[in-house]
């Protein structure tokens, strides 16, 4: 079912808010990973505010949907979505990476509300998502498990072992989203260790594969909707994105993989994000 104009506007604006809160907290922390956090804002907006069955008032509902952020360094974006959704106060975002904060530099399932799996060592999140999805099958639960991966991350061999496992056990309740922004910490993904052809690889491993513009709310919504209807196969949504999306001086610049904006750079980012969708 297509999004209504009101839903689409809301989700686009929520993506903008996720970006606003992300750059603000990173500037306050003085460290972190803006590029890969900003590139997945639309994914997080759609998952947390449209598709996932979750309720901040019932954080441990056994029937809730789960998200595993396998590319754990992108957690500032996830923290923004969780705070806006109501899992913890938005003001708490300013404690990112500070002593005694619940918001560490990578996801921590033991201390942070809404975090389903501790991640950060790249390549491991899909295996964890497999376990959660398989558990749902064994327990005859109908919740879905989502897993966001990075395109540099899929250079890890464990990803492909996990991909075989997902297919072997016909985990149709598992939906992967690949943040295909083409860059990783050391440069362009294709130059470091070229994973292409990406869609052919996932299909060869037995997955249903969908390709979308990862910043197009309608395309991404339709892909997630189709994935939820898939039977007997896991689905990988290959979402083409722009690293640092929404902040002109960060877009497609590898140096912004892992550094925080200065106060002056923050103000420029907020001005640009405000122009996208209203007052930041």
Topology:
Elements: H1 5-29, H2 35-38, H3 41-51, E1 66-69, H4 75-85, H5 125-138, E2 145-150, H6 157-168, E3 174-180, E4 183-184, E5 187-188, H7 189-193, H8 198-204, E6 208-213, H9 217-229, E7 235-240, H10 263-277
Parallel strand pairs: 1-2, 2-3, 3-7, 6-7
Antiparallel strand pairs: 4-5
Helix fraction by DSSP (H/I, runs of at least 4): 40-55%
Distance between the termini: 30 Å
Q: What is the average of the pLDDT values?
A: 96
The largest sheet has its strands arranged as 1-2-3-7-6
CATH architecture: 3-Layer(aba) Sandwich
User: H/E order of the elements?
Assistant: HHHEHHEHEEEHHEHEH
The computed structural class is alpha/beta
**Number of H/I helices:** 10
Question: What fraction strand?
Answer: 5-15%
Coarse morphology: globular
Number of domains as seen in the coordinates: 1
Describe the main β-sheet briefly. 5 strands, parallel
**CATH C-level label:** Alpha Beta
CATH superfamily: Thiamin diphosphate (ThDP)-binding fold, Pyr/PP domains
Q: What is the rounded Rg?
A: 17 Å
Parts with pLDDT < 50 across at least 5 consecutive residues: 276-280
Tell me how many strands there are.
7
Task: Find the CATH topology.
Answer: Rossmann fold
Describe the protein's architecture and organization:
The protein has 280 residues and is α/β, with parallel strands linked by helices. It has one domain (5-277): Rossmann fold. Helix content is 42%, strand content 12%. The strands form two sheets. It has a five-stranded parallel beta sheet with strand order 1-2-3-7-6, sandwiched between helices. Strands 4-5 form a two-stranded antiparallel sheet. Strand 6 (208-213), helix 9 and strand 7 form a beta-alpha-beta unit. The radius of gyration is 17 Å and the shape is globular.
């Amino acid at each position: 079912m297509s999004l209504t104009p009101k839903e689409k506007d809301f989700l686009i604006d929520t993506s903008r808010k996720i970006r606003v809160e992300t750059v603000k907290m990173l500037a306050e922390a003085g460290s972190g990973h803006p590029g890969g956090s900003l590139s997945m804002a639309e994914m997080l907006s759609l998952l947390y505010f449209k598709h996932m069955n979750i309720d901040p008032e019932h954080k441990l509902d056994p029937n809730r949907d789960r998200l595993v952020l396998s590319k754990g360094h992108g957690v500032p974006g996830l923290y923004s979505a969780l705070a806006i959704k109501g899992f913890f106060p938005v003001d708490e975002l300013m404690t990112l990476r500070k002593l005694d904060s619940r918001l560490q530099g990578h996801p921590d399932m033991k201390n942070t509300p809404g975090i389903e799996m501790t991640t950060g060592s790249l390549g491991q999140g899909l295996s964890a998502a497999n376990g959660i999805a398989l558990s749902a099958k064994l327990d005859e639960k109908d919740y879905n498990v989502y897993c966001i991966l990075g395109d540099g991350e899929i250079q890890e061999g464990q990803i492909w072992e996990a991909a075989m496992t997902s297919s072997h056990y016909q985990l149709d309740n598992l939906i992967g989203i690949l943040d295909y922004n083409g860059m990783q910490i050391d440069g362009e993904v294709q130059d470091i260790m070229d994973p292409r052809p990406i869609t052919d690889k996932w299909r060869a491993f037995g997955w249903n594969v969908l390709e979308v513009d990862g910043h197009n709310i309608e395309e991404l919504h339709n892909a997630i909707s189709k994935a939820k209807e898939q039977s007997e196969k896991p689905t990988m949504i290959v979402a083409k994105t722009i690293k640092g999306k929404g902040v002109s001086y960060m877009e497609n610049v590898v140096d912004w993989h892992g550094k925080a904006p200065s106060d002056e750079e923050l103000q420029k980012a907020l001005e640009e994000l405000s122009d996208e969708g209203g007052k930041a």
